[in-house]
Amino acid sequence: MNSPWHLYVMAFLYIIAGINHFRVPRLYQKIIPTYFPNPSLLNFLSGAIEIALGISLLFPPTTQYAAWGIILLLFAVFPTHIFMLTNPKASMGLPKWLLYLRLPLQFLLMYWAYTYTF
Fold first, then answer.
1. What's the whole-number average pLDDT of the chain?
2. What is the rounded distance in angstroms from the CA atom of residue 46 to the CA atom of residue 17?
3. Are 82 and 32 in contact (CB under 8 A)?
4. Rounded to an integer, what distance in angstroms lies between the CA atom of residue 70 and that of residue 60?
5. pLDDT for the residue numbered 3
6. How many CB atoms are located within 10 Å of the residue 116 CB?
7. DSSP annotation of 95
8. Is Hydrolase among the key words of this record (predicted)?
9. CB neighbours (10 Å) of residue 32?
């Protein structure tokens, strides 16, 4: 493995985030928009996908696919960030400015993943 250090950082972040879905499932279930069915299943799936994509980033034959998968995942979970912003119970007590800051952060994370798609 001769990848740049920031690829390892990205992989580590997604693996840890995915594990956290299993460590503290109620935290994530609480922020899933109410119009989505079965928050437990969605939390489990998103956590498992984050772990799988993070691991897949580490192997050159799957890095590009994993990066595209991360972009799709970040797009898929974007409604969660809107829901946190618009629903006080889902905001986890975070200040509004931070919830607003998270929205463009998602696009920065997508761009970061995009840099590994070619």
1. 96
2. 10
3. no
4. 15
5. 81
6. 21
7. -
8. no
9. 22
CA dist 8 and 35 (Å) reads 35
pLDDT band at 1 (very low <50, low <70, confident <90, very high): low
In angstroms, the CA 80 to CA 77 distance is 5
Euclidean distance between CA atoms 69 and 55, whole angstroms:
12
Q: What phi-psi label fits residue 9: left (phi over 0), alpha (psi between -120 and 50 degrees) or beta?
A: alpha
Q: Do 23 and 8 meet the contact criterion of CB atoms below 8 Å apart?
A: no
Judge whether 62 and 112 are in contact, CB under 8 Å.
no
What are the structure tokens assigned to 105, written together? Answer: 């952060």
pLDDT tens-digit series, residues 55-95: 999 999 999 999 999 999 999 999 999 999 999 999 999 99
